[in-house]
Amino acid sequence: MSEPDWLICAREAQAIAQTGLAYCRDVYDRERYEQLRALASRLMAGFVNAPSERIDDFFRAEQGYATPKVDVRTAVFDNRGRVLLVREKIDGDRWTLPGGWADVNLTPGENALKELREESGYIGEIRKLAAVWDRGKQGHPPDPFSCVKMFFIADIVGGEPMTSIETSAIGWFGRHELPEALSMGRVLPHQLARMFDHRAHPDLPTDFD
Predict the structure, then answer these.
(1) For the whole prediction, is pTM greater than 0.70?
(2) 118: Cβ contacts below 8 Å, ≥ 6 apart
């Protein structure tokens, strides 16, 4: 599923403006980049039904060279071949793989295991990097910023099931027993299906898209 042209154009204009403002030294160039950012805000606001000022404040918070954000997800399975999912409070108690935005000073794998521990109570050990996907090409709902999603397969080596300030429930689901109420901004059915493939066939290469 491809993203709408308006979103691609608004996101690219914002990225150009953000990077330009990070490096330009000429006062006139700065004014032009600020105008470009304002246009990106207006374009985005027109399609998401939000005030352009609010979008502009959102964009202003992003500084430096514009790069994709990094989201990490961890798939762990029990001895019955069921995958672990958690319910995200912030998304109406919908189900997802444990994960979130990657923090600085941690490797992607360390971030994935941290999220697993914080959201489910389990301690994991990375087995493989299963997928590196561009969020915009996967069919997720539209998002203002570009994002790379990294999916890991891990084994549970300790801990115990425990919810957190972010999660309201923990559950194990078979391949054909996945809940309908998925947090679609975080994980999609075909991504979960691919994690089952990687679990069944450990020698599969990492997926890139």
Answers:
(1) yes
(2) 98, 164, 166
